[in-house]
Amino acid sequence: MPGGVRVTAELMVGTDLAAEMVANAATRAEKLRESTGVQPCLATVLVGDGPASATYVRMKQNRSKKAGIGSRSVVLPSATTTAELVATLTELSNDSAVHGILLQHPVPGHIDERAAFEAIDPAKDVDGVTMHAFAAMAFGEPGFRSCTPGGIMRLLEAYDVPISGAHAVVIGRSPILGKPAGMLLLASDATVTYTHSRTVGLPEIVRTADIVVAAVGKANFVRGDWLKPGAVVIDAGYNEGNVGDVHFGEAAAVARLITPVPGGVGPMTIALLLEQTVDAAEAQSETAVQSVAGLA
Predict the structure, then answer these.
(1) What is the DSSP letter of 37?
(2) pLDDT, tens digit, for every residue of 106-163?
(3) Is 104 a residue of the active site?
(4) For 94-212, where are the alpha helices, taking DSSP H only?
(5) 245, 219 in Cβ contact below 8 A?
(6) Is 218 considered catalytic here?
(7) How far lies 56's CA from each of 45, 49, 92, 115, 126, in Å?
């Protein structure tokens, strides 16, 4: 932690829990390979050569290898059109050897990101970015969770945070982070308030929260005096210099529980991605067996 920071909150560290999830995924992947000959495979698609995105993709590929998950890397030039990206994602969706697809986001500004996401087969949407995945989260139906919100829920569960009846304030409205995080909290019987950087009276609203999820994409945006004493603070932001969306020093002196950046939400995101890739491979293998048997 930064020097001189007075930390009274307990840290919600995701590293150990994520490692356990990856180990379990590796065991299941090996069992699937032994019983069916199928190795789960995650295809990653990167448009352009942004250093941060390229680093994230390499990290996910390395973690995939540790979990016994095969990886396929598709790197497209930054000038790729929406139609070309959609064609690539459609091809991967139709490839029976690929079980999960990850489109690294953000994509270049000229691409229709939503159109690209919707080209991913929902059965392979292990990052939980399609409208099908969002609807499943909203309605409590089977489907893949958006990885960061899903990872947040697992972290809250691991630290025995009471969610039912709690007031959760989500700061951020991204379709793959803020919005699904609120849906998952609501499904667990929290009372959810959505806010964002333009919300009038934001500090006063945050001060009413038992659980704060910061996903606004601005470094040190949430200040310590915004928080109710004893609040649980989930910092889902990651900004230049390993800084989250919450001013850690201030918040850690007020909160009861807080996620560090890095080492909090980040590891959970990747772990859930790998877990859901194995889920997808198992489901697709079962469907293939049923189809051969004439049962599908």
Answers:
(1) S
(2) 999 999 999 999 999 999 999 999 999 999 999 999 999 999 999 999 999 999 999 9
(3) yes
(4) 113-118, 131-139, 147-158, 178-187, 202-206
(5) yes
(6) no
(7) 11, 12, 20, 22, 16
Instruction: List helix spans (H) across 190-264.
Output: 202-206, 248-252
Residue 64 assigned as binding residue: no
The token pair at 129 is: 């970015």
Q: Is beta strand 100-103 parallel, antiparallel or unpaired with respect to 191-195?
A: unpaired
Catalytic residue flag (residue 284): no
232 forms bridges with which residues in the sheet?
211, 257
Question: Which of 121, 125, 127, 210 is the catalytic position?
Answer: 127
Residue 172 assigned ligand-binding role: yes
For residue 255, what are the contacts with CB-CB under 8 A and spacing of at least 6? 9, 227, 230, 231, 232, 233
Is 161 part of a structural domain of the chain? yes
Chain centre distance of CA 260? 16
How do residues 161-181 score in pLDDT, each as one tens digit? 999 999 999 999 999 999 999
- Residues 116 and 161 both lie in one domain: no
Domains identified in the chain, total number: 2
Six-digit token string for 256: 């009861």
Q: What token pair was written down for 97?
A: 């050897």
Model pLDDT, residue 2: 47
CATH code for position 53: 3.40.50.10860
Whether 160 and 219 map to the same domain: the answer is: yes
Cα–Cα distance list, 95 to 69, 92, 98 (Å): 16, 5, 6
Question: How long, in residues, is the chain?
Answer: 296
For residue 208, give the nearest of 217, 195, 221, 189 by alpha carbon.
Answer: 195
Specify if 8 maps to a domain.
no
What is the rounded distance in angstroms from the CA atom of residue 245 to the CA atom of residue 213?
Answer: 10
